[in-house]
Amino acid sequence: MVACLSLLVAACGGGDGTGEAAGGTPPSADRTTTTAPAGETTVVSRAAPRWETVTTLQGSGPSRTAAFTIIDSAIQWRVRWTCDAGRLTITSDPPPRKPRPVAEGTCPGKGEGFGIHTGSIRLDVATTGPWTAVVDQQIDTPLVEAPLAGMAPETLVGAGPFSPVEMEGKGTARLYELADGTRLVRFEDDFEVSTNTDLFVWLSEAEAPKTSEEAVASPFVQLGNLKSTLGSQNYVVPAGVPTDKVRSVVIWCAPVAIAYAMAPLTRS
What we know:
The chain has one helix spanning 212-217, and strands spanning 30-35, 41-46, 50-60, 63-64, 68-70, 76-83, 87-93, 103-106, 109-115, 119-126, 130-139, 143-144, 156-161, 163-164, 169-177, 183-193, 200-204, 220-225, 231-237, 248-253, 258-264, 266-267. The protein is mainly β. The strands form five sheets. Strands 12-19-16-15-13-22 form a six-stranded mixed β-sheet, with no helix packed on it. Strands 4, 5, 7, 8 and 10 form a five-stranded antiparallel β-sheet that branches. A five-stranded antiparallel β-sheet has the order 14-21-20-17-18.
């Protein structure tokens, strides 16, 4: 297996300030304390903020879009736009408390604008040519992905519990291999890792790395960005990755070389 390490310009946590880099105090996952009706307090875990696409809108010339919904718990939402000619202005209905365009710019061009109101929203686009607007909402709720087709006890080839390396981690990692050769990885059983951004998923040949140094010393393949620091999630293993050599899953912060958590994959 060939080791790979992406070079990134931002350190883990640099995007939203929810965590600290190497040498600081390891951050716990964000938690919100609420009071239950009976007077008891409960602690609700929050994931690192992530963007999820709500809708993609397209048109030509002045347009009023179909309504879309931003969930009440969203932190904010954004419009990523492109346009071909003239000048573009995007306003929203309902408008923000201080009425202003959500976005504006010169075409041809691209840009983004932000809003914080929630519920049902329409956009009014003023321009003279074709345009596209992608609406995303930023949320910190647990990710809930259903198991993929073929994830079943008979296709399970390895599994193990997450445990801390440099940061917190819990839940279970499972590796599946289907009859057609497709390999899948799933995190579940209340998967959670310390809240931060710029985290990545490794398939590693290390048996059960206890330190960041042990994790980086063994060959690994990087599957991509961790989708969420909290909740169930699936990953497809690229064809050609020799999963017969994989012995663990590592959650890694590449810019500062920190292994957050790992899960040994005990073979079935």
